Amino acid sequence: MELFDRPDAGEKALIVNLSINEVFSEDDLDEFTQLVISANVEPIAVIKGSRRTPDSRYYVGKGKLEEIRHLLVESCADVVLFNHTLSPSQQRNLEQELTVRVLDRTSLILDIFAQRAQSFEGKLQVELAQLQYLSTRLVRGWTHLERQKGGIGLRGPGETQLETDRRLIGQRIRQIKGRLKKVGKQRDQGRRSRQRTDTPTVSLIGYTNAGKSTLFNTLTNSSVHAADQLFATLDPTLRQVKLPDYGEIVLADTVGFIQDLPHELVAAFKSTLQETIEADLLLHVVDASSPNRLEQIAEVNKVLKEIGADNTRQLMVYNKIDCMESVEPHVDLSENGKVAAVWLSAINKEGVDALLSALSKECHVGSVRRTVTLTPSQAKLRARLFTHAEIISEMVQENGNWLLDINMPNKFAYLLDELPFD
């Protein structure tokens, strides 16, 4: 059962965007319009206005409400979309006055997520977010359910239909959380396995539509769905990547962030975002051609802080330089000579080699690269090295000794203390 009336392809929408207390951004409106298009809805008109504070009943004033009503009749629009967060009562009052569906920004993002989720886990996470959002809005258009049940065997004091639905939603939320907990345990097992082998995990993060999936496909030779639209990726994908002069790492492609990302989604996608929380390094992908890239970087860092990943090391990746004039692939260095940012074009594969080299240097932080020789009597030590180190190469010499080129995390470097350098 769909919890929201998901807009079908071909539906038409009116967009309402108010300037509250003289705060208005044309870029915010453009982003919301892109969200509408991503939901397969055609925006046919934008209604703008300004207020010092939102109206408590309708969010908009009575004059603007009449303007919306008049334009609905003229345009035959099917839905009104607010680029704001509406309270349950405002949403209900607007639907009663306009007699069409009214959705706010959070509802629209939830709907897009519902359309894009493909995996079992992703669908559960979206349903959980929808239920948590819906649980506060059961009164929306459901006034006929507020009376108590009647009929034979059901007369007298008891549970109203509305209370019944709230209880059933609560039960479903607990059931979904239980299932997600099991899926989360499976993910934890995979993470623990990578931690035992000390394979670094690098997570791609960034604002939605920054080109993360395109970069992921370029680095891993994969075919993850990538499109020029908001929230093209919901389900996390993990692939191995071999770095020059280092070895294997695990690269994770994750969901993009957006301004005012609904808290319901952040909470519901906690297990998915765990790949970001526990990553050794974050590749912060930025649309370098966007005029709002600084604001987008700030929004991503805001969500990272919310999920507890704000202290993880970041490497900035400025993507889409092919959309900019006179910008070539290059690397920015910090004052101490470390790589601070890489400028590239993922779709044209320009600057990707510089990124791989920078990743290799970052992964070498906290590790030691050694070439060692082991005798046949040191077979147990060889087995421990295969468990705790990245074996770059191994060669068997004529005398039966092993010549190993290894990359060893510092915490296991004690295994090499008594071995000579080669």
Largest sheet: 7 strands, mixed
Helix content: 25-40%
Terminal Cα span: 66 Å
Order of helices and strands: EHEHEHEHHHEHEEHHEHEEEHEHEE
Mean pLDDT rating: 79
Number of beta-strand segments: 14
Rg over alpha carbons:
27 Å
Give the spatial strand order of the biggest sheet.
Answer: 6-7-5-8-9-11-10
- How many DSSP helices? 12
Structural class designation: alpha/beta
Strand content: 15-25%
What global shape is seen?
A: elongated
Query: Regions with pLDDT < 50 over 5+ consecutive residues?
Result: 1-9, 140-156
Q: What does this molecule look like?
A:
The chain has 422 residues and is α/β, with parallel strands linked by helices. Helix content is 38%, strand content 22%. The strands form three sheets. The chain has a seven-stranded mixed β-sheet with strand order 6-7-5-8-9-11-10, with helices on both faces. Strands 2-1-3-4 form a four-stranded parallel β-sheet, with helices on both faces. It has a three-stranded antiparallel β-sheet with strand order 12-14-13, with helices on one face. A hairpin with a 3-residue loop joins strand 6 (237-243) and strand 7 (247-253). The longest helix is centred in the middle third of the chain and has 36 residues, at 161-196.
